Inverse folding.
């Protein structure tokens, strides 16, 4: 493919990504892969170049662009070499004087006032920087110092005692340690959420929104003698956990929940859990460096629905906690409504509950929890609070 043809391909892919974000369809990486499956003439260099253009355009535009062409025109404002490709054979049409490029922004304008005041504007660019690749060592079967030597360029994560950090372009899916279940890909922030649970052998632990089970696996490795139940309402996501647990050599029970009848499915656990983790569905604003197109999918109405769902999940989780037990609330978000305000609302509804210190030596206090952000802590952005039921 010529450089001009690559640029045209990026425009076509971005048109699909924009439509998919609007209609809550497939993510950008899947759309890119699907695009090239029907274009076998494109070599590996072409695929890399087009993908880079696509994600540069996504990172640059906080608001969902009107078209893929508008997104690429935005890139061309900062790159004269791209301007020269317009009008070439197999490339996009020449630029008209009346065309409007997509503006460059980090945060959608409607979200700016909703970001935690702890994340000042000087830190916003870090929300879109390329993220490193973090691994969590399966401490039930391996030693971090020994594995450190097996991954060139790896360093211990700064905060999590379980983690290794590799350069962002590293691959580990063909590494023997990964194949043997000695490491899992997991951002340091997610590791810290699991560490905040302080899992111990003999405990009953519920991971209420387990998804694919990354945090449940971390909890099982930290406390092999704990009884861990991982639940979710999404069958596809939850089905990924049993084979991962088998590879890691840990025991985790899974249970598919039926929304909105979660309480019925968890009746046998009511009031018996030592720890309940509610890693709730959220805006994902703390993970924009990994999923920049999430900004295009979020709307005020969708955010309101997520906040309502988080409150419902907190109330369900609270009913599972035994007297003297703890509920860990976490969201990969830097929005006040999903973090500080959500935790405060829970404590207002349940006046006998108390907040406990979150055992994470990083981030900053925000209300009763802690907020970590990429620019300051090097992790994904997230809020976590530890809430205790009185005896």
């Amino acid at each position: 493919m010529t450089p001009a043809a690559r640029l045209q391909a990026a425009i076509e892919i971005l048109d699909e990504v924009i439509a998919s974000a609007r209609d809550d369809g497939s993510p950008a990486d899947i759309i890119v892969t699907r695009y090239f499956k029907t274009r076998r003439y494109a070599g590996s260099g072409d695929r890399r170049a087009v993908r880079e253009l696509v994600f540069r355009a996504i990172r640059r535009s906080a608001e969902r662009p009107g078209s893929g062409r508008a997104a690429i025109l935005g890139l061309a404002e900062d790159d004269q070499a791209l301007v020269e490709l317009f009008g070439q054979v197999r490339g996009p049409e020449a630029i008209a004087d009346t065309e409007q490029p997509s503006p460059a922004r980090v945060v959608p304008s409607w979200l700016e006032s909703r970001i935690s005041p702890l994340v000042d504007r000087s830190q916003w660019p870090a929300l879109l920087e390329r993220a490193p690749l973090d691994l969590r060592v399966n401490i039930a079967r391996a030693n971090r110092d020994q594995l450190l030597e097996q991954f060139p360029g790896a360093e211990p994560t700064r905060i999590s005692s379980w983690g290794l950090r590799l350069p962002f372009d590293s691959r580990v899916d063909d590494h023997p340690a990964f194949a043997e279940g000695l490491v899992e890909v997991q951002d340091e922030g997610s590791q810290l959420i699991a560490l905040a649970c302080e899992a111990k052998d003999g405990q009953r632990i519920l991971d209420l929104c387990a998804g694919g089970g990354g945090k449940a696996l971390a909890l099982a490795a930290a406390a092999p003698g704990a009884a861990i139940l991982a639940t979710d309402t999404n069958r596809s996501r939850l089905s990924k956990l049993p084979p991962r647990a088998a590879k890691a050599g840990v025991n985790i029970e899974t249970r598919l929940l039926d929304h909105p009848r979660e309480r019925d499915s968890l009746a046998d656990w009511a009031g018996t859990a030592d720890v309940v983790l509610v890693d709730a569905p959220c805006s994902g604003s703390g993970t924009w460096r990994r999923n920049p197109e999430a900004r295009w999918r979020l709307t005020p109405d969708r955010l309101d629905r997520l906040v309502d769902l988080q409150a419902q999940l907190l109330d369900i989780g609270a009913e599972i906690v035994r007297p003297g037990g703890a509920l860990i609330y976490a969201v990969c978000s830097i929005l006040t409504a999903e973090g500080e305000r959500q935790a405060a609302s829970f404590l207002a509804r349940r006046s006998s509950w108390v907040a406990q210190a979150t055992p994470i030596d990083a981030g900053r206090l925000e209300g009763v929890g802690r907020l970590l952000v990429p620019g300051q802590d090097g992790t994904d952005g997230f809020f976590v609070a530890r809430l205790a039921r009185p005896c």
Remarks:
- The domain at 188-388 is CATH 3.40.50.150 (Rossmann fold).
- The first helix runs from residue 3 to 22.
